[in-house]
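Researcher: We're reviewing a set of sequences before deciding which ones to prioritize for further study. For each one, I'd like a predicted 3D structure that I can look through quickly. This is L-ascorbate peroxidase. If possible, include the structure in token form so it fits the rest of the review sheet.
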Amino acid sequence: MADPVVASHLSLVLKAPPTISSPSQFLLQQHSKPMASSLNSAASLRLFAFSSSSSSSAAARLSLRSTSLSFSSSLKSLAFSTLSRHKRGSAVSVSSTGGFSSVASPKCAASDPDQLKSAREDIKELLKSKFCHPILVRLGWHDAGTYNKNIEEWPRRGGANGSLRFEVELKHAANAGLVNALNLLQHIKDKYSGVTYADLFQLASATAIEEAGGPKIPMKYGRVDVSGPNECPEEGRLPAAGPPSPADHLREVFYRMGLNDKEIVALSGAHTLGRSRPDRSGWGKPETKYTKDGPGAPGGQSWTVQWLKFDNSYFKDIKAKRDEDLLVLPTDAVLFEDPSFKVYAEKYAEDQETFFKDYAEAHAKLSNLGAKFNPPEGIVLDDGPR
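Model: Here's the predicted structure for L-ascorbate peroxidase, in token form for your review sheet.
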């Protein structure tokens, strides 16, 4: 039995991801390393991984990437091995030789409500055994976060449309390691063919927040999947982590999505989950008193003491600046430096109820960006917000 895993680690690196010359090489780079007895754990939960608008200068930019998760199973038993059997077609399939191949999928109609509910229960069980909350949140956000409000045409506008399942988008620097999130969810997708990838990604993200103790997210479903890799957004739409002017950069990127200052700060509060490892990201300490015992692989530096609990500790700890074992990045610190951001950061540090309310609304808004719903009004599961 594999040991528990604490999510995937988003890392900052000073070089571009390895060049991938073929689909087979992409799979082999992910899975040909020695298999560990447990999934390596986790860490830094950024709103989005770093990316640059200039793909030609990738070798010189910082990129946030997820650490590789080692699987105790053999290549033969990897979750992707069932992809080619989907009734609706799949984005990535595995050949008998172990290579990825991109396969166009027909556009899907609305997800089935009963299957959505069942899939949610399976996601809850996955979270209990793998502690993969951060990487599932990241998966949902990266699929939605490519949205450009200035482009009307679907799916060219980007957003929550399931495009992140395709190899061409998985290879974007900002999405390094998210193949591991697909592996974690693939058996659920196989089981519930009536749930679109776009819905599954957002369902997993919202469920991860809720199961970590966060607010109930007022979600709706029925997102339509893009049909092929030619409908993926170009690289460079996701925000950077360490720009020269953090406040200006955050506004430039999130305003393009149609989000405002309050929503930027509220979404930043999800950094209460996760940790960072210096050997993989260049940020944080190798180990602290809060991370030395895991769960999952020990080590790294977290933003909060209880880094698998969703609360308002992120804001409290940044404001206090009294614990050297807790991580604060430039894009975190700016929330208490910029006058407009500071209004909300101060409020959230004092009032968790207000933070939860604003976060839930911002998360739901993010999860709907760019989505095409069928039916147009979407599907609301009958339990509703608590």
